[in-house]
Amino acid sequence: MLEVSVPAPIVAHLGSIPVSNAVIAAYVTTGFLVLFALYVRRRLSAVPGRAQAALELIFEYIDEQLTQAFGGKKEGRAFFPFVMTLLLFIALANQLSLFPILFQVLVEGKPLMRLATSDLSETLTLGLLVVLLSHVLALIVSPIRHIGGYFRFGALLKVRSLKDLGGALIEVFLGLMDIIGEFAKIVSISCRLFGNLFAGDVMVAVIISLSTFTQFLVPIPFIFLGLFSGIVQAFVFTLLTIQFLAGPVNSARAHREEREQAKREASSAESVGVAV
Fold first, then answer.
1. So where are the chain's domains?
2. What's this model's pTM, rounded to 2 decimal places?
């Protein structure tokens, strides 16, 4: 009987900590990613082959997206290692189904592994990491301005009439909506990745379970469709990550530059006054 479970089954315990098969798949993915990085490092050549050229093309594309998002090559490349690692991890995690033997090992009747990105807790963790990182970086650049963008109660202190009160309440409401929007970012970026990968797994599992005749050749086109979808979703997640990081960071950086410019102008005006 076909059994479909949204939560990843627990297959082991690390002390008192339960370990799901999706977590094991995430560790396997990380291991493959480390081996891939070591292999690429040893095979790098001044005259790139097809594989190296394709990888360089992806690197250049991500570098271009970061440059456009952050307004400069130097600013964008500061985020390149994180963003590229995220892309490679998700893309590789989505392609583990190329090795079906990994998913046929059973532990107490449960598969030892399951695609890491088909577990909602894993994708929620990635989404939470991206959004939290964007806010931490914005707080480092301009903490008061960043917090004030969400808690706009300062507008209430400037109220001098009923007309001003209406505008202040709207500002407070918009700030609260921005806070809700940040939670919506986490849900949207994680559920999009989870939904596509989980749906692909369920579709293949249903086809395989229909009869003996559908266990072999019939699922192959759907498996390749899932692999293609996995690559697309990895790029979608990465591009959304770039935008989610760039928004708060650019806003905080612009406010800091405006404040520094105002200080320079004030200092210049004082110097002119002293000279006169």
1. 10-275
2. 0.85
